[in-house]
Design goal:
Layout: H1 2-25, H2 30-33, H3 35-45, H4 49-57, H5 59-71, H6 80-92
Helix pairs in contact: 1-3, 5-6
């Protein structure tokens, strides 16, 4: 998972920074206020092979985590078990043969 986060930060820093600032500024309504920024992060990361592989292999865990966040918008920390399951899954993804350092695409 650290590889995926490093890649996201490396190739999508601007988008991640904007989204993080929005979430921090709107702790109880971030789902509504930050949706467009969330989509920009998703668009930026969706083209990276490592992230694509993790999303494919751990889609169930990620969907459950996202659902938990939607259902607990006022207390996202209650989703820590969901995030732990997703991270646990991401750590087990076999990245053999996946291009870890492709040429970054302009955003």
């Amino acid at each position: 998972m650290q590889v995926a986060m490093d890649i996201t930060t490396k190739y999508c820093h601007k988008e991640m920074e904007s989204y993080g600032q929005c979430v921090a500024a709107h702790p109880s309504t971030w789902q509504q206020h930050c949706q467009d920024l969330k989509m920009k992060v998703a668009q930026c990361t969706s083209s990276h092979p490592v992230i694509q592989k993790i999303r494919t292999d751990c889609s169930k865990e990620f969907t459950e985590f996202e659902r938990c966040l939607l259902e607990n918008q006022n207390s996202p920390t209650s989703c820590s078990a969901h995030v732990a399951r997703f991270l646990g899954c991401a750590e087990t993804v076999d990245l053999a043969g996946v291009a870890v350092n492709p040429v970054p695409q302009p955003s």
